[in-house]
Amino acid sequence: MPFVPALHREPIWRRPSRSESGHRPSGYPHLNRLNVMRHLLRQPLVWFVAIGILLFGADSFFSVDRSEIYVTAAMQERIGTLWQTQTGQVASAAELESLVNNWVREEVLYREALRLGLDQEDSIIRRRLVQKLGFIAESDPTTAPETATLQAYFQSNIEAYTLPLRYSFRQLYFQSVDDAQRALQQIAEGADASQLGETSMLNATYAYRSGLNLNATFGAGFADRLRGLDPGEWRGPVRSGFGQHLVLLTAIHPAEVSPFASVQTRVALDYQQSQQEDARQRYVDNLMDQYTITLESR
């Protein structure tokens, strides 16, 4: 029988030798560690989880322990200074300790309120924060204005420094119209007016009173009823919120502009307030420019 040589076959897979340990045939059924890492790094979910862990760790590392309250010496001094400002007395050691303890108690309650979200959707807190931000906007230091600047402001706002029409007069009070009319007749017949009238909480004389002031004292419309009266004669009865009056106008003072020198201090305060309001408005305008405002149609 003739000899037939066997065909040489390559094995489908064989265990690699030590010299071949770094090489895997393409037909190897499992990925090695390097391929696994490459595969994982291509997955978005893996990156998402990794970044989240990194951010959480950074927050834990840099954040202050919210359960710790450290009362610095400067804070204790401010608490004592506030007490002295309110009471006019320096706090003793025992009083300061009590004040600090009260402050710590309030701080604990404040932090707990924040943790519970009690500051959210609270209109009072909202207004207070807006108010404090307004104070910050107005706190820029300003130099004292020159006299020429104040004079220009005075002229630009001359109405604010113009004294209105004012009245000076005497008055007699009566509860009823009939009593007032009888007294007016007695005065016309020569009776002493100072001996007439009923007792009241009102003054017998008033000087340099504006219409606004008189209406606040005697009731709405009282100043209007004085306009038709002639100075120098007893007239009435004039009705007020209290009753009836006989009135003797002693003088009618026309409106006049106050001299600048007499109101310079007030002008300086008004100018400063105006500058603060302008600074606040500029601050708000700059903030508004950073937002996109969208109003939903109704």
What can you tell me about this protein's structure?
The chain is of the alpha+beta class and 298 residues long. Among the domains are: 33-62; 165-254, Chitinase A, domain 3 (Roll). Helix content is 49%, strand content 12%. It is built from ten helices and six strands; from the N terminus they run ααααααββαβααβββα. It has helices at 33-41, 44-62, 73-87, 93-115, 123-138, 147-156, 177-188, 211-218, 222-226, 260-288; strands at residues 162-163, 166-174, 205-210, 234-239, 244-253, 256-257. The strands form two sheets. It has a four-stranded antiparallel β-sheet. Strands 1-6 form a two-stranded antiparallel ribbon. It is elongated.
Task: Write a compact overview of the structure shown.
The chain is α+β, with helices and mostly antiparallel strands and 298 residues long. Helices cover 49% and strands 12% of the residues. Among the domains are: 30 residues; 90 residues, Chitinase A, domain 3 (Roll).
What attributes characterize this protein structure?
298 residues; alpha+beta; Chitinase A, domain 3; 10 helices; elongated
CATH architectural group of the domain at 165-254: Roll
Q: For the largest sheet, list the strands in their spatial order.
A: 3-2-5-4
Name the helicity range: 40-55%
Strand content: 5-15%
Number of strands: 6
Number of H/I helices: 10
Please tell me how large the radius of gyration is.
Answer: 44 Å
Main sheet properties = 4 strands, antiparallel
CATH topology of the domain at 165-254: Chitinase A, domain 3
N- to C-terminal separation? 105 Å
Name of the level-1 CATH class of the domain at 165-254: Alpha Beta
* Helical/strand content category: alpha+beta
Mean pLDDT over the full residue set: 84
The coarse silhouette is elongated
Q: What sequence of helices (H) and strands (E) makes up the elements?
A: HHHHHHEEHEHHEEEH
Instruction: Show unreliable segments.
Output: 1-13, 25-30
